[in-house]
Amino acid sequence: MSRQITTTDTTLDVRDLRMSYGTTEVLKGATFSARKGEVIALLGPNGAGKSTTIEILEGFRMRSGGEVEVLGTDPARGDETWRSRLGVVLQSWRDHGKWRVRELLAHLGEYYAPYREPRDVDELIAAVGLTEHGHKRAGQLSGGQRRRLDVAIGIVGRPELLFLDEPTVGFDPQARRDFHDLVHRLADDENTGVLLTTHDLDEAEKLADRILILAGGRVVADGSADELSRQVASESEIKWTRDGQRFVHAAADATAFVRGLFAQYGDEIADLEVRRATLEDTYMEMVRRFESGQDEITELPFQEALR
């Protein structure tokens, strides 16, 4: 987060994005930006406009107003060269049931060849954990294996920006962990920007560098999980035992309090636990604030560096 931001680092620049369906205004001025190698989770209650936002950024839907640039191009005017720089993992792909996994990925890779070098098929299959299933038809795969194939389809063209819509639905715990490792490798090693939507707040907290909370058609919060939690909860809860007694204390500076605790009691302190607000706590509180009309949540200072 310390390196200087330049214009060439920007993958997404969204300003005052608006979208209406008839008389219903779904997006009412959403504004945010993102940069290369950054993983962003877009959260929000049902009907907040998450899917509409993603579809506009992908170039699948025309917006009603506002300014949008994705990899330096207005998605409404994006050509095939621009589309080749994107990766998209939808909640469900059209049926590729008759294709064998390896053949399908090799075939799709050919579409990217005129624009960029697609991934080696065997390396791609290994990266998503389908090595033992590369010879199978897609229709023979389990739900979790089909989802791994969806992810492989999304990254076969080495995208500069990857959109993930509920990417780990149907994953078992090991598959979920493998997927998280893959996303981190894409971001850290290949500088791929990632924008994902998920209802799994634990996943968002583990994966995302930044969290965007969309409510009422606007971005009402923008920052890391820790930054957002500090906006909601000014104090941390500290629990410990001493001489068999259990103690609980709230402190604005948990580190200073714990340091003082050990300075006074040393080895008498046991079962120490420090709890800050979780992302779930933060999310629920921020949505509650918005729904109750207390939506004056400003962007964090960090965002000024992205402008």
TrEMBL record:
Coiled coil: 262-289
Top-level division of the source organism's lineage: Bacteria
Principal subcellular localisation of the protein: membrane
Cross-referenced Pfam families: ABC_tran
Bilayer disposition of the protein: Peripheral membrane protein
Cell compartment(s), UniProt: Cell membrane
SMART domains named among the record's database cross-references: AAA
Keywords of the record: Antibiotic resistance, ATP-binding, Coiled coil, Nucleotide-binding, Transport
GO molecular function: ATP binding
Location of the ABC transporter domain: 12-241
Cross-referenced CDD domains: ABC_DR_subfamily_A
PANTHER family: ABC TRANSPORTER ATP-BINDING PROTEIN
UniProt name for this protein: ABC transporter ATP-binding protein
Lineage of the organism: Bacteria, Bacillati, Actinomycetota, Actinomycetes, Pseudonocardiales
